[in-house]
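S1.2 Input.
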Amino acid sequence: MRNLRFIFVFTCLIVVLALAPARAGSTNVAAFQSQFIQLCDLAAAKVRNENNKVPFFVDSYAVRALCAAYDRTGNTNYLAACRDWSDRMVNYQEKMIPRGAYYMHYNRKPGETNGDWYAADSSSIGMAVLATAVRCQGADQKRFLRSATNFAALVLNNYVKPSGGVTDGIWSKSGDAWWCSSGLFGSFLFNLYASTGDKCYLNAALNVTGWLNGLDLAQDQPFPLSQQGPSMLMYVMENYSAGWPYIARSEAGKKAAEAKVTWCLNWISEQQQKPLAERHWPPTAAWGMKFGGLPFHQYIFSRQFPDDGNLSAAGDAEMQRLAPIVFTAKPRMTQLPMFMLMSYAERLAPGAVYRSLK
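S1.3 Output.
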């Protein structure tokens, strides 16, 4: 009887500990897993819905996270959603002018010859198509890889400056190299190189990195840091997070890149230390929703930089601050949870977002 009583008390203690909220400064990984799967189920339905009105670059972050979720759980519904979405992107792409462009779900439509078209948002779409290709086989994999290389050829042949920076495609506002298109296309190229082994992609990506290394992010420019805030940091850091294994091979390039990454991580930390209600960019609106994607980069560099776990702990704390916004009721799949999905994915399945064929 005494043994049974002990077992009952011990079992109750385990249940209470599992259900208890994480203490300040600690991480309840089981809660992260539960939140991640809840958002994955909602995102899978959202990206498969052809009446979904959001720009496709927003979907693309959910697709990349769903690919990582498939790796972690084996849930074939996640991969099916990614395959359906990517197939739709390629169908649109095959009708786009110029050849190789992705339809962004706004501005220039398939078959049209007028209107803006952006290399930045299309790079996000391309990374999701490529991530889907990595998980597929046979004809699907070949088709999705061909789609990614067609997009790469369009941008490399038309929108990369001699400086290494990338313009934002057909953008009526500016034809200069820009931080957003450079950061995202650089990330796309690093991912494409990882799956194809074609060094033309690696060389171009390293040139993009060199341009970003020399860019003062706080300077006056189209959509400056003072306006974009976390949005700028999220997209610029994509280049470094995807490319660090290659960037770090060169001591000269690594030194300059470390300085830029450190500046970015410090800026992120300064913003995260402010209460949500006091932040210049509210996480519930516009550019502030990108706060959900910043822990992704902290998790990446927690494994690249020796910091005694500080970056990972900071990412965890930010996710715990943002979670009540999303989970107080049934989650609404705004940009905030869509970007948080990337952060959950990297925290729970390190390296899966950047998984490659090679």
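S1.4 Remarks. The first helix runs from residue 2 to 19.
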